[in-house]
Amino acid sequence: MGLAATSSCWIGTSWKMTKTLAEARRYAAGLAETLQARPELTDAVQAFVIPPHTALAEVDRQLQHVQAQVLLGAQNAHWEDAGAWTGEISVPQAADAGARLIEIGHSERREHFGETVEITALKVRAALRHGLRPLLCVGEPASVRDADEAEEFILAQVRGALAGLDSAQLARVLVAYEPIWAIGEHGRPATAQELAAPFAALDRAYGAQVEAVLYGGSVNQDNAAELLEIPGVDGLFVGRSAWGLDGYLELLKIGASHGRAHRGRLDG
């Protein structure tokens, strides 16, 4: 499905463990004000923002007039609807705070919090059960890339998380390919050549089934346009280069330009 079917380019950011409530409020208010004044920034773009849980409800309030342009997401949610899970939040709680998307399986969750493929499968189903989009993150470490096993590694992560879903459920899933060696403060930006084979594999296996396949990993304003031209890439999942509002707006501008051009090629 993805970009070929929707003519939309996905541009989103997770703030991770950054921003106080006041900082989140300023960012979201500025984003809403800008999009109301410049709706062309989301022409052929589906924007999304994933703040920390503490800011979900406030960001939702600030974005209420641009909800058609910006999806609000949560960085994590438990697979159970309620219960004795100290420190967790449920999908219904995230939805109650305004979230319409749940990030699942980020490499930091897998490495530091023991999130397995089986856990990602439970969380994907919980999100779908409550009408939210799962954003499934997958990616390989450098050792797997160097062994030339990246495609099978990431496909196994996707297969494990999405096994048993029907076509309607799959059509609401977003997949974000984020090679571990390319993400974070010390990540090395991947080249288009390095990303071609993983995206070709994802496209063959899931491109016609899921809502979109995104790329994340040292994305910035200088490489975004090139990354969007990689076959199979339906959008970008951005970290620190979108933590400032100006940076995110510039990425939306790049995405809109790409989305309009792609739509024009489809129409032509």
Note the topology.
Elements: H1 2-6, E1 9-14, H2 21-37, E2 45-50, H3 56-62, E3 70-74, H4 91-96, E4 101-104, H5 107-113, H6 117-129, E5 133-138, H7 142-146, H8 150-162, H9 167-170, E6 174-177, H10 192-207, E7 212-215, H11 224-228, E8 235-238, H12 245-267
Parallel strand pairs: 1-2, 1-8, 2-3, 3-4, 4-5, 5-6, 6-7, 7-8
Helix pairs in contact: 2-3, 6-8, 8-10
Domain module tally: 1
Give the C-level CATH assignment. Answer: Alpha Beta
Structural class: alpha/beta
End-to-end Cα distance, whole Å, is 19 Å
Poorly predicted parts = 1-5
State the fourth-level CATH superfamily.
Aldolase class I
The whole-number mean of residue pLDDT values reads 95
Give the neighbour order of strands across the main sheet: 1-2-3-4-5-6-7-8
| β-strand amount | 5-15%
CATH topology: TIM Barrel
Principal-axes shape call: globular
- Name the CATH architecture: Alpha-Beta Barrel
Number of strands: 8
Biggest sheet details: 8 strands, parallel, barrel
SSE order: HEHEHEHEHHEHHHEHEHEH
**Helix share bin:** 40-55%
- What is the alpha-carbon Rg in Å? 17 Å
Number of helices: 12
